[in-house]
Amino acid sequence: MAINEEDIENHESRERGVQEPLLVPREKDQAGKDEGTDKGRPWMVYFSTFVAVCGSYEFGTCAGYSSPTQDAIVEELSLSTAEYSVFGSILTFGAMIGAITGGPIADFVGRKWTMRMASAFCAAGWLAIYFAEGALALDIGRLATGYGMGVFSYVVPIFIAEITPKNLRGALTAVNQLMICAGVSVSFIIGTVLAWRVLALIGLIPCAVLLIGLFLIPESPRWLAKTGREKEFEAALQKLRGKDADISEEAAEIQDYIETLQRLPKASMLDLFQRRYLSSVIIGVGLMVVQQFGGINGVCFYTSNIFEEAGFSSSVGTITYAILQVIVTAIGAALVDRAGRKPLLLISGTGLVLGCIITALSFFLKVYDLAADAVPILAVTGILLYIAAFSAGMGAVPWVVMSEIFPINIKGVAGGFATLVNWFGAWAVSYTFNYLMSWSSYGTFLIYAAINAAGMVFVITVVPETKGRSLEQIQAAINRE
Length: 481
Fold this sequence. Notes:
23 helices, mainly alpha, 481 residues
């Protein structure tokens, strides 16, 4: 695997204190407890996370823009249905390109500069949309915002995972998904009362906050260590943990592990399929497949249509869905470091399967004209259960795990590949959803139920629990197997 047995033994012996620490340990108090991290309040970690998740919120505003603005844009610019369809779908194409290139760029220029670049693309895209007088400018702007989305979808969870202590990492990384949901929901709600050009300008606000905030936070210590910038690495880690914190043990562990990894050859895309990296790749990519092919983008993009077909008010259903998604995602983020990753994934998977089955039952009854009064109730119950279950675990946890499992020498390539698979799945599901619904409405949701059930088996048998372990411990354990 990625680290041979001798390397692992050396790594473990150094963890026990054989190696000199990078910094002289600070004395502990009389109780034998370290005061570090500013008496348990790592405010710089929280602030850095807030700055980074402005990129996640920007992701959400990009994704949520087209739904409330469709009628106004089509009417004002006299677009055909085909032209607006291109405008809506080209976002995903841009995100795929961003996913492919975001990882290598983040490895080359650092996490902060990558977020700056993504912000610049999003800002340029919003301005192109704002000044658009025809389909071409709209599409160029949408493509640019899509590229920024794709880059943010990789670099934000990676950056958060690399700066946070292990006891906070799951919750703070899950805030990424919470802010995406918040961005989508806010765009949908305010988009119903604002002009589409004004809504495009509002999309610039998260970019501005992010660009300013990046001047106030440190770079990822693990990236600095990987690139050999030892003094900057120590300064960044000290700033994140607090000026009085003892960072010697954590710094030694990070440096030690990176030195071990750097004795390995630099990874390429083909190298991901070598035996030493295969476990990490299977886990990371497998979770992205389960997340997307379980039907989430089909349900999200066509929520209004689903409610209408079931005979329920689309506006009431969609607003309820938007609010529920944010609330449950927040609850999941609060629980991910307490309950663990696998329990949340399994609870989420159970709810997804039940939600799909209930929704399938509602469409079955409608197709065969049975129990007509129960159809709307079952449809709303099934869809809202599906959304709540997805938000509780399957929405955020795959990104948390993806940010944790890849060794830093392949993180850019592997993370980019996993993100590309995620965006391809998003496109494939949203593209095929209407065709599947035309074939069989209840059959579509039974297929999604089967995929989510298979996903639960995958989680039980393949995905490790990463709660409460450092990134180095997680990656060494996976590669040891």
